[in-house]
Structure formats: structure tokens, C-alpha cells
Amino acid sequence: xxxxxxxxxxxxxxxxxxxxxxxxxxxxxxxxxxxxxxxxxxxxxxxxxxxxxxxxxxxxxxxxxxxxxxxxxxxxxxxxxxxxxxxxxxxxxxxxxxxxxxxxxxxxxxxxxxxxxxxxxxxxxxxxxxxxxxxxxxxxxxxx
Length: 144
Fold this sequence. Notes:
Number of domains: 1
Shape: elongated
Structural class: mainly alpha
Strand content: under 5%
Number of strands: 0
Helix content: over 70%
Largest sheet: none
Distance between the termini: 8 Å
Radius of gyration: 17 Å
Oligomer: single chain
Mean pLDDT: 96
Number of helices: 4
């Protein structure tokens, strides 16, 4: 087994752990911030998390691309790549715009609910990607 299956599992695990941390810790804390303190809390959250998102998504992109190029016939690799891409797309097309609105307009209940829902989709996609990445690695190990 070459390095790409291991890198894919590592990147998918990092991504899933990151998403679970956002889902279980960061967003619940953000939702509970009093309205008069929300703008500052949201700005700090955004400033702190953006570099981490870039790092996690960058590593994930490299690992998925490498795995796809070295194992284009693996359904599990395609599932991991598609699920990872889905999480990134939900971030770009739903969560990021919602964060922009939260920064400009404040913590409306509908905006916070929409953000939490989008985050659950991202987390589910990240977990699917992790399961698929592990399945790919296991199949490679068993068939050696």
C-alpha cells in the first residue's frame, strides 16, 4: 500500500474531527452568545477558524486528488472524494454566506438555525468520507 491511502485516511479523519468539533463545541457556544455580545464573538470565531479551514481543506484536497489519481478504479476513493467535495461545497455555498450575513446582520434565529443545519450536512459528509477512506485502505490491505 502506497502513501495515498494513508494520507486519505489521515486527511479524512482530520476533517471529520474538525467538523465534529465545530458541530459539538464551536457552534453550540456561538448560538448561546447573548445578542449584545454576538458581533464580537462571531468576529473572533471567524478570524480564528478561517486559517484552520484552509489548512484542513487544503490537506483534504491534496489527499483526495492523490488518491483519485493513484486509484481511479476504487469506488471507495470516489465516495470519499465526492463526500469531501460536498462538505467543501456546503461550506462555500451555504455556511460561508450565512457567516457573512451573521457578521453584517447579527444573530437572527433563522440564520443560526440555517447555519447549524448546513454544518450538520458538512459533518455527515465528512463522516461518510472517513468511512469510505478507511474502507479503501482496508480493502487494499486485505487484497495484498
